[in-house]
Amino acid sequence: MKALVVRTVLAITSWGWVRRLFTKTRVGRRVALRFVAGESLDEAATVARRLNESGMSVSLDYLGEHVSTPEAAEAARDAYLACLERIASDGLEGNISIKLTQLGLGFDDDLCASALISLSDRAALLGLTVTIDMEEGDFTGATLRLYEATQRRHGNLGVAIQAYLHRTPADLDHIIPLGGHIRLCKGAYDEGAALALQSGVDIDSAYDRLLARLMVSSETIPAIATHDADRIQHALDLAVRREGPWEFQMLYGIRTKLQRELVDAGHTLRVYVPYGDSWYPYLTRRIAERPANVWFFVRALLGR
Ligand code: FDA
């Protein structure tokens, strides 16, 4: 059922007129700004500073994915390098989250590999870390191979894993020994039954099993990326016996009251802060997770 809802919403939001309605109207941009810090690095840095002041660290994500020219891939790499410099120069408590298809994965894997090395090297010099987002199932294998190859340089990378994928338990065998932040999320893309679990209940059970494995691994820093109260409680139960560091991660603009409560209770929380003008695909995934978000748009359209 969950997969069907995601599939339907992602199909509808790919229609040209729906895309134009969101991206070409002031109302659409206003809705996007609920989930996106702004279009510029300055705006993202301002939001990051505010979140730091309220006790939360950040992961800055320069929006974009599936570029198709070397120039676009290099521009994304340069935007991320600028973001790393900004985190360091402003003394922000944060890192960056990147998508490998934004750096060329899929059309020039070598270009992507060298961009990832540049980011990892620069981040290491600045004492920062880089987390790799996980995208559609077609890219999982290549993403993990690049993670493995590059993580060996400085050990300053992390990677997201998706509980809905059948392959994830086996992938963990390879990536746990490499250390780093391992961000456990449910998975946000439209994947078929051959690759991924289809029901919300099955995905939640898989999430809990992976969570239990991560919370006993001494090599990694588990990042529990969810807004789901039951998963969060499960993490809190397991954390009682955990000795090493771990953290919660949530998305900018989602369940902000819960974010505040966790920080007030003394837990470590990192907020994923997206910015940039290529926000539409990101917005469609946030709507697919919660189709009720469309009402937010409709109300804004009606001026309420
Ligand atoms: P679930 O969808 O069950 O939501 C639990 C509750 O949270 C909902 O009942 C609602 O109250 C609230 N909520 C959740 N989503 C909402 C939304 N969009 N709008 C409003 N309320 C919402 N995925 C991926 O495939 N690759 C990746 O790299 C990442 N990276 C990532 C980083 C971080 C920090 C987070 C938190 C999430 C991701 N994701 C991701 C997304 C993830 O896979 C998943 O799609 C979303 O987090 C939604 O799932 P929940 O675990 O929050 O549970």
Number of helices: 13
Strands ordered across the widest β-sheet: 1-2-3-4-5-6-7-8
User: What is the subunit organization of this protein?
Assistant: single chain
Low-confidence sequence ranges: none
CATH class membership of the largest domain: Alpha Beta
Return the string of H and E elements. Answer: HHHHEHEHEHEHEHEHEHEHH
Biggest sheet record: 8 strands, parallel, barrel
Helix content: 40-55%
State the distance separating the first and last CA atoms. 31 Å
CATH topology of the largest domain: TIM Barrel
Bound small molecules, by name, code or SMILES, are: dihydroflavine-adenine dinucleotide
The best one-word shape is globular
Q: What portion of residues belong to β-strands?
A: 5-15%
Structural class: alpha/beta
> Count the strands?
8
Number of domains: 2
Rg, rounded, reads 18 Å
List keywords for this structure.
304 residues, TIM Barrel, eight-stranded parallel beta barrel, 13 helices, globular
Q: Can you describe what's shown?
A:
By secondary structure, the chain is of the alpha/beta class. It has 2 domains: 1-36 and 279-304, no CATH class; 39-276, TIM Barrel. Helices cover 51% and strands 14% of the residues. It has helices at 2-13, 16-23, 26-32, 41-53, 70-89, 109-126, 140-154, 168-175, 200-215, 229-239, 256-264, 280-289, 293-301; strands at residues 57-62, 94-98, 130-132, 157-162, 180-185, 220-225, 247-251, 269-275. The chain starts with a helix and ends with a helix. The mean pLDDT is 93. The site of dihydroflavine-adenine dinucleotide (FDA) has 24 residues, from β4, β5, β7 and α12.
